[in-house]
C-alpha cells in the first residue's frame, strides 16, 4: 500500500458517499445516470468475486464489501425508492455499445484465460468506460448540480491517483499490470474535459455549465 | 505466463 493508492481509494469512497448523500438528502436522483450505476455495480461484482476465496487484508475485504453494497444500494434508490425522480429522457446512452466491445476485449486480451481472470479483465475494461453514460447525460442536460460535480471529480480523481500508485509500484516494487494501467489511463483521460470545467467553474463557485 | 499477478488492488 502507498499513499497514492490510499488517497485513491479514499477519493473513491468519498465519491460514493457524496452520491448516496445527494440522493438521500435531496430524495432525488435527478442528473444521475442510472445506466452508469448499473455498469459500476457490474464492475464491482465481476471484480470482487475473489472476496471470499482470496483474503488480502481486512482493509481490502471491507472496501470490496462497501463498493459492492453501495453500488447495489444506489441502484435500489434510483430504480425503486426514488424511481419517480429518475431522468429517463436524458439517460439514454446505449450501454450495449460498451458491454459488447469490453466483453470481446476481455476475452481476447487478458493475463490468463480462466473465468476469474477474464471476469477481472472485463471489469477493468468496463470500469474505464462506465462513466460515459453519466458524462453523456451531463452533456445532454447541459449542466450538473454542484454536488454531482463533486461526485464526478472524486470519482475521476481516484483512478488518476491510481496512475501515480502504478508509477510508484513500478519504480519501488518492480510491479506493473499493463491491463490495469492502460485502462486506468483511458478512464482518467475520459474525465479530462470534465476536470477542466470543474476546476475553471465549480471551484470558483459557478455552476457546472457545459458550453451549449 | 508471467508470475501470477497478486490481485491486491481494489
Automatic annotation (TrEMBL), chain A:
It holds the Pfam family ER_lumen_recept. Keywords: Endoplasmic reticulum, ER-Golgi transport, Membrane, Protein transport, Receptor, Transmembrane, Transmembrane helix, Transport. InterPro entries: ER_ret_rcpt (IPR000133). It is a multi-pass membrane protein. The keyword Transport applies. It is found in: Endoplasmic reticulum membrane. The chain crosses the membrane at residues 62-80, 92-113, 119-138, 150-168, 174-199. It comes from the Eukaryota. Its main location: endoplasmic reticulum. Belongs to the ERD2 family. This is ER lumen protein-retaining receptor. The gene is LOC106478124.
Amino acid at each position: 500500500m502507498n499513499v497514492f493508492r490510499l488517497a485513491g481509494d479514499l477519493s473513491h469512497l468519498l465519491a460514493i458517499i457524496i452520491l448516496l448523500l445527494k440522493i438521500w438528502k435531496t430524495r432525488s436522483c435527478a442528473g444521475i445516470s442510472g445506466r452508469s450505476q448499473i455498469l459500476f455495480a457490474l464492475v464491482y461484482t465481476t471484480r470482487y468475486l475473489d472476496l471470499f476465496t482470496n483474503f488480502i487484508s481486512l482493509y481490502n475485504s471491507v472496501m470490496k464489501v462497501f463498493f459492492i453494497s453501495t453500488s447495489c444500494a444506489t441502484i435500489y434508490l434510483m430504480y425503486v425508492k426514488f424511481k419517480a425522480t429518475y431522468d429517463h429522457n436524458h439517460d439514454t446512452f446505449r450501454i450495449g455499445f460498451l458491454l459488447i466491445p469490453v466483453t470481446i476485449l476481455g476475452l481476447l486480451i487478458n493475463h490468463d484465460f480462466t473465468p476469474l481472470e477474464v471476469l477481472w479483465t472485463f471489469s477493468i475494461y468496463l470500469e474505464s468506460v462506465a462513466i460515459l453514460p453519466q458524462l453523456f447525460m451531463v452533456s445532454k442536460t447541459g449542466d450538473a448540480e454542484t454536488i454531482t460535480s463533486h461526485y464526478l471529480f472524486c470519482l475521476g480523481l481516484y483512478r488518476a491517483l491510481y496512475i501515480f500508485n502504478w508509477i510508484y509500484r513500478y519504480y519501488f516494487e518492480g510491479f506493473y499490470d499493463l491491463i490495469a494501467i492502460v485502462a486506468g489511463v483511458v478512464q482518467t483521460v475520459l474525465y479530462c474535459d470534465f476536470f477542466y470545467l470543474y476546476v475553471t467553474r465549480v471551484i470558483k463557485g459557478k455552476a457546472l455549465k457545459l458550453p451549449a | 505466463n508471467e508470475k501470477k499477478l497478486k490481485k491486491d488492488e481494489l
